[in-house]
Please model this.
Amino acid sequence: MPDKWEYPWYACWDLAFHMVPFANVDIEFSKDQLLLFLREWYMHPNGQIPAYEFALGDVNPPVHAWAVMKVFKASGPRGKRDRVFLARCFQKLMLNFTWWVNRKDPDGHNIFAGGFLGLDNIGVFDRSKPLPAGGTLQQADGTAWMAFFCVVMLDMALELAEEDPVYEDMASKFFEHFVTIADAINTFGGNGCATKGLWDNEDGFYYDHLLMKGESKPLKIRSMVGLVPLFSCLVMEQSRIEKLSGFYKRTQWFLENRKDLVSQISFMASDKKKSNFMLAIPTKEQLEHVLKYVLNEEEFLSDYGVRSLSKVHKDKPFSLHMEGEEYSVSYLPAESNTYLFGGNSNWRGPIWICMNFLLVEVLQRYDFFYGESLKVEFPTGSGNKMRLKEVSSHLSKRLCQIFLPDSSGHRPCHGSSDLYANDPFWKDLVLFYEYFDGDNGRGCGASHQTGWTALVVNLLKDLANNQDKK
Model:
């Protein structure tokens, strides 16, 4: 992260996010940075990518492949992109994917326990340490991040297979692996394993589960953990996959012979009567249920984006008693009130640009598949129904609003500071804070971090392009 004061060190998932907006400035630098972490002097021989230099063995969400794909698409128009860069990254990312599967799915049931996963204090426990009473945490976000990783690798393999059929086999592998992960996270007590699916049918939300003595108990905290399953979405147009004969043949066999898993694949007939496939964790109904929470201004939706923890926990904190100790989570819109991870980071209410960016992006993909057939209220309860691409645009505008001056010159990110609003030497020096107050958009945490907060550049760019089209 480009910050010699508060963060004079790298963090691999911060860097991955940062290279996406940096590609607007220097595409070669972005590619070199992403490749660097896949080279033999950074990546462990077993495939693990080091989290940061003071704790190489920690675990950050696997977003490196996503960043690679974004930078690849930014490298030129279709047909003129840097395929050598993509292929080089794909080979090493295969090692990283295998490391995750072998190390983070201890029971082989496609329910992953990643530990820390970058979201600091979002849970009721410190997820980087052993749980009390020897319990095991089955993480909705850990499992969903692996599905996300899987579906990005599938997209990458399909792209490479268009010019080299060798990659079709790997595309088939990732297709089938994704379906089994999606099935595991959605299964209601199936597959003969102790865990239940991480979807709560009563609440219509994804939760972490605490597994103790063979019994699985949902930790009913409505947080960003339950939104990560939405990020995994890939639409495959039949006209595209029919050209990949090996992959198409294998996919057809799978659809015919694995009826137990086909429910995890959505189909939509186009105007040409050809079916498009969509791989996603939530079904249409599950997506609608989760979005009711996401777009509710009394829950996740803020004037400045989507909060990391539902506001409902302000008056109704989550509490759990174990071994004489009380563990609780309550809504804190700005700075943390605990010393977990040093106390300078907070995922219990604030807005984090990186996660919001993934949500804005994936809503556009869902809209590409569902189109007019899926409209939701924005905000929830308003009666104002719109397509998901419109929801995505509204969320993007709210995020951009954090950095834009009002009529008095004040930007929400700078709070009530008159210096940044009126002083000619300061008013245009916009700070990219680490995260933002879930109620008023004020910047919190590291103030010179840049990192993933720079993703707002891409949102502003898209909004400007859309306005030019109008």
About this structure: Residues 27 and 165 are 28 Å apart (CA to CA). The chain has 13 helices and 16 strands. The mean pLDDT is 87. The first strand starts at residue 136 and ends at 138.
